[in-house]
Amino acid sequence: MTQYIIRRVLISIPLLFGITLIIFALANLMPGDALTAMITDEAPISGETLAVRRAQLGLDKPIPIQYLIWIRELAQGNLGYSFVIHIPIGPTIARRVPATLELMGLSLLFSIIIGVSLGVISALKQYSVLDYILTVLGFAGSSIPIFFLGLLLIDIFALTLGWLPPSGIGTAGEAFSLKDNLKHLLLPALSLGVLRTAVFMRYTRASMLEVLRSEYMTTARAKGLRERTVVIRHGFRNALMPIITIIGLNLPVLFGGAVIIETVFQWPGMGLLYITAVRQRDYPMIMGLALISSVAVLLSNLLTDIAYAFADPRIRYD
Amino acid sequence: MLQSPLEKAAKGESPWVKSWNRFRRHRLAMTGLIVIIVLALMAIFAPLLSPYSAYELNLADRVSPPNLKHWLGTDGTGRDTWARLLLGGRVSLSVGLVAVSISMAIGVLLGGLAGYFGGKVDMVIMRSTDTVMCFPSLIIIITLVAVVGPSIYNTMLVIGLLGWPSAARIVRGQFLYLREQLFVEAAKCLGVPPLRIAFLHILPNAIGPVVVAATFGVATAILMEAALSFLGLGVQIPTPSWGNMLQEAQTLTILEQQPWRWVPPGVMIVISVLSINFIGDGLRDALDPRMVL
């Protein structure tokens, strides 16, 4: 097991290197550099001073050296300065992380629970009317653009019915309360969750059908076990294995979805910060966020693979 | 005795006819195909299907709800929603097609090279594929747009540039299996050059899964374009696309009181993506019976 984890971590290192290389290349294509980010327009600085500062920061060095300097700074948690608000990027992003995690966490939990249960039901009742309806709904769920779904939900539940607030993370001017926060969270988490619910449902159904056909199911029945035990202990637990991988593969998409949903619902997380940065052409901020979300995806893929190895003993010995 | 089964095979249906027959039996896929043909015709003949231009401003007649003159009403500057919807379909569908052509070209080339040559070539290509797959693609696409600037061509390009890894993986998998087959051995013995074997002998046998992946790819690309244009980072107004027509709904008054301005393009996206996904599902059953799901 330890050996497997070590090997898996080692594979991630070239990926991490690739990510930093691509982000650095993109950053170099963008106008302006780290120094432009630190100075404000209000206090003009002479060209000479700029040249000196640039040399201090290492911006006059060849590109490969600059890359190494950038990596060194990254390792110390320094992501550079924002072009627009002239403050360090790291802490600004860190403050936005909890809101995004809350949104993505709840929506992922929702889609795993609903998606997997519906998938199992669909498989157990294969070719029934219910199975057919769930399959078509699954297609519909993965075909609707999430921002359109979000807008429809706002129109129906917030504007027409007035049950839930249309945007934000809490009622303005009111002290934070969990109930108020959850009321604001419900619609965005739902919009973000529907697509993955559909995906998880389809994969669970396929995986469950495959398991139901296998011979150990017949063996379990032949032993005289109750049907419930056969389906849940012998069937469902084995069907769950491939679904762990599918959940892991869906995490990058979840990040993209969060950007859209946070914009639609004005949810103050990393996604909204990102879109604001893009609209203001705040390049260092864009790069910082792209880097952090890519690394987060890399780490979660790593965790998924390790979780899979824990769940399936066969993986460890190949 | 030996001849009869052979004769039967000779008279039998070609693989393409067999596939078509399997596809035809898939009811959802046939429905999807018909819907997509209708949508494509509407997009091609867009200007003929509406008396109004998609660009013409008419300030006297702005924000009017659907009526006999303007079937789907008008927007804030008096442009006809129906005309914009038709032209928007042309834009959205072609962005989807072009983007997928780009990612398929890259994916087939890289996947083919990796699968055919194996070894170091395979390792380098598959590692880069993993790296690109690791990126949250919408975020990297937005980052690229921030560098190159938003426009319809850049939208096609960036969506295409990020979509190839799944195609590359599929093609590689097919090549790994096919390159061990006898017909490849035979071609090698005849002295056919490696690239010719890879792309003229092996690739045609791997075309089924590629077509399936491309079909689902078009659906994803249309959704991606819609999201980008909705955020104001894709196709730019005044050129209509289904995604950027939905931008207006970010204003709460329009969202609540003027549904004709944003519901139709949203519905069109759902219909077209759903149809394409149905077609993809039918094609998977028809072309690639080994694949489950």
The overall average pLDDT of chain A, rounded, is: 84
Helix percent band of chain A: over 70%
Shape of chain A: flat
Order of helices and strands of chain B: HHHHHHHHHHHHHH
Beta-strand percentage of chain B? under 5%
Radius of gyration of chain A from CA coordinates: 24 Å
Say how many strands of chain B there are.
0
Coarse morphology of chain B: elongated
Order of helices and strands of chain A: HHHHHHHHHHHHH
Query: What percent of residues of chain B adopt helix (DSSP H or I)?
Result: 55-70%
Unreliable residue runs of chain A: none
- What would you give as the CATH superfamily of the domain at 93-267 in chain A? MetI-like
What is the SS-derived class of chain B? Answer: mainly alpha
Total helical elements of chain B:
14
What pair of chains forms the biggest interface? A-B, 55 and 46 residues
Radius of gyration of chain B: 23 Å
Total strands of chain A: the figure is 0
Task: Please tell me about this protein's structure.
Chain A has helices at 2-29, 34-38, 47-57, 63-75, 89-124, 129-141, 146-160, 178-212, 215-222, 227-264, 270-279, 283-311, 313-316. Chain A is mainly α. Chain A has a domain at 93-267: MetI-like (MetI-like fold). Chain B is mainly alpha-helical. Chain B has helices at residues 3-11, 15-25, 27-44, 81-117, 119-134, 137-148, 152-162, 164-178, 182-189, 194-202, 207-230, 242-245, 252-257, 263-287. In chain B, α4 packs across α11 (207-230) and α8 packs antiparallel against α11. Chain B is elongated, with a radius of gyration of 23 Å. At the A-B interface, α1, α6, α7, α8 and α10 of A face α5, α6, α11, α13 and α14 of B.
Concise summary:
By secondary structure, chain A is mainly α. Helix content of chain A is 77%, strand content 0%. Chain A has a domain at 93-267: MetI-like fold (Orthogonal Bundle), CATH 1.10.3720.
Descriptive labels:
heterodimer; A: 318 residues; mainly alpha; MetI-like fold; flat; B: 293 residues; 14 helices; elongated
